Amino acid sequence: MTRRLKQRWARLRAWLRPPRSLKVTRVGRTYLVVTFGVGLGALNTGNNLLYLLLGMLLSMVVVSGVLSERCLRDLTVRRVGTDAAFAGEPFAFRWAVSRKRGHAFALTLSEADTPLSGEGGVGYLRAGAEHVVRANLTAPRRGPVALTGVRVTTTWPLGLFAKTRVLALPGSLLVYPRRGYACRDPGEAVRGPVGDAGNPRRNDGTGDVTGLRELAEGEDARRVHWLKSASLGKLLRVEREREERRTWVLSVEPGLEGAPLEHRIEEVAALAHRLLEEGHDVGLDTGARTLRPASGAAQERHILRALAWLGFEDPRGDEEAA
Amino acid sequence: MRPGTRLRLVLRDLASGCAFASMAVSGQLPVWTLALYGVALLCALAGRRLFAKRARVTALLLLGVAVVLGLNVLNGALNIVVAACAFAGLISGHRLLSAPDAATDGQVHLSGLLMVAGGAALSGEIIYGLFLVAFGVLASMALALGVVEAAVPEGEPVPVRSVMPPLATGVGFAVAGAVAFFILFPRLNWNMTGPRASPGFGEPTTGFSNTVRLGGAGTIKGNPRVVLRATLNPDPGVEALNAYWIGRTYDVFDGQEWTTAGGVRHAREAMLTLRPGGDSLVHQRMELLPAYGGRTLIALETPSRLGNAFLNSTTGSRRTFLQELSGGEVRVLEAGLGYSYEAYSLPPEKGSGDSFRGLPPIEQDALLTLPETVDPRVAQTAARVLNGEREPLAAAQKLAQWLQREYAYTLELSGDVEDPLADFLFTRKAGHCEHFATALTLMLRTQGIRARLATGFFGGERINDGYILRAGDAHAWTHVLVPGRGFVTVDATPPAHRPSQGSRFLERLLALYEAVESRWRNSVVDYSFRDQLDVARAFMRPTREPESPTARGRLPPPRAWGVALVAGMGVYLVWRALERLSRRARPLEATRFLDAVEAQLAAARVPRRDGEALEELHARLAREGHRLSPVIAPVTQRYLEARFGGRPLRSGEAERLLRTLKHALEEARAPSAPRARAS
Question: ipTM of the assembly?
């Protein structure tokens, strides 16, 4: 089934979905069985006290329905979102839920009709106050996830039934590739006058001096701080803010599909993370898109976003990412 | 443990306790199960979950208990329903002592439900209703707190105070709904089981034996327990009936105790006719309660017919038969906890109608029999008091007045003395009703006037539509045989000391309980399809009472107030709903127009950013030089004017603008056709 068909099917399901859905919990099933038994007993024996008990059990069911409906009414939910969502691992997600009037109890929030698993809960929602619900969601794979609505469920008041309402709230979430460990070497660094490293022929780092340490075996003697070495009587080398800064351009080979593509993307993401952490400049070449080498967290986010979109439709703008 | 969790567990345990108590009030559960459950509940409330780490081992205990109960059932020592209820209680106790987790909570509540269902099968007491409601409230609160607690993130407090008010409202509605369901749900089986009885608390305190012995010790006159209920037709309508309710008579006195000559007259009858009646019989629907403790039927003096007896036991009611013994005593053949029957009695002002010749010979002889050891001063005193009076009734009344005047009433018994009558008449000069009745009867006999001793109850306190008798109302009096009238009641006991002599406070308390319990029994336990028809009939065609001149100015009946109240509430709710509907902000014409424009733009897939307003869209398209910009411009302008500029859309203007926009959008979407080139 193509992606477009899937989207249409999701839309159709959303359109056909009843305004409320009701599910009997485990306790509720037992409760209903006992109620049925008491009803049979009352009809069979004519015992009025059993009729009274049956009436109480049934009216509890009705009251349960009414109170849960009151909880789900007049709810407003907006997505606060997440900082970064990586596939295969829980990430913090937040919704802001509020109610103009009346209180709500025992609400559970989750994303409807998405592969995202996980839910967040709020025990008591005060009228007029916005409450931020936190949840640890997990996405099974990378890529953009179309969000259609937020599912709000309550088992209030007795936990017999779980009543659910889906609040339509379109949006999207970009899931970055799974984080892992890069086994392969990033390859030869690109050498050239790129970035702000100054003379690329000098690989002794840039920036301010951050410390001194003893020169190890085989290290470049040009890094020796001669004055301090002389005063202490041993060879000390200089450590700078950005050590050994180099430039890599990572690439995802065109033509890859399926598992090899995913594997390569995850590997590139891991490499990029490692290199950027080490202070290097990293660029990306996916064939369809090229990112100039740069360093820092912003560059890592750009790379992750590009990798997340790889194989999907082009992003329409930065604002679509979470 | 969070504060809310602790409260939830206490509520859960208390709910279980109420459920168990709803069974325990029947008095049928074995005492050892009461003790075991009680210990379990106390430990649980103290927070000591003794079985938390020994769930499997302690489950074996339950198995052992099940075996013991099963053996009791097989031996016939225990009813299977009672055994099942007891086992449910012990399971609940075991769960109370287990580690509190979600599964345990569910099991405690489930066993609680089973216990209240078992309580309904075992008991029809009003206390059951109280425990049922308490269980419903407490269990609901515990469940609701559990639901909220599960949704509250770890480390945050459970908002107990916020949960309670809406939950209390919900539970209130649930109880009201239960009552409505109870009233309206059609009874298809006509309440075949009828009223049930449970042993109640304490041993039965009255009843009838084959003798009345003077002396001894006891406090029966001060006992306020209700032993009998009666509904009379025609209803006297008085608060204090002050009537004599006879159980049996005695005719042989041996100096110490009264006995009856003769034996069984009728062995097994459904309806017994003691003496011919008439058109003016007083019909009584009687119920002997477990506190009565005897099998002798009681009826208003003087009974004519008794029958239609039912035996009430813990398992239900069944028809039973009667036997007639000497002394006019009628007994139920089988023993039960309580009995209900019907009786017809002659009007109180008439005599019994018995003739001396109509009595069995053995009774005829006994009516003048004196004990061999009777003190000669008795006859001398009687003759002195009567002073030649020979007419039986007048003589009896004269002697009775003399006794009331000269002798004191006391509940302090004399103990065992050789001649109780002489001790009463000449030594202590004080006694209770049996002394007075014995003295009068024997004094009459010494003067050749036939008389006998009667025992039963005196009084009748009105509760709702009927009357009750207490154990302390037990009484003794004298029957004097009057030619042409039969036996006539003459009571030598001072009038103030005839009814119960118990504590007024206790009597009032019990009367209040009895009134509530009577309502409960009539409205709940005995509620039937017939009552449902009556309810429906009362609403569809209210019964009209004949108007009396004094009733013209009275207020409407309570039913009318109730209907008016319900109707008023209905009108108020409808008004509130309508008001809310009218208050709801209706979409303005301009807003509807905007919605239609946005729908067309969305259908035409015009690129639009999230949250981008129409004017922002127009501004952006204009900046970008989009070809739809000129089309959207007039629409945007008119919307803004209509919405904020005070220039509402004219009639048909919106449709025209939308039509234009639609055409423009369709043209913009259509692929541009190659232009024909003029040659």
Answer: 0.73
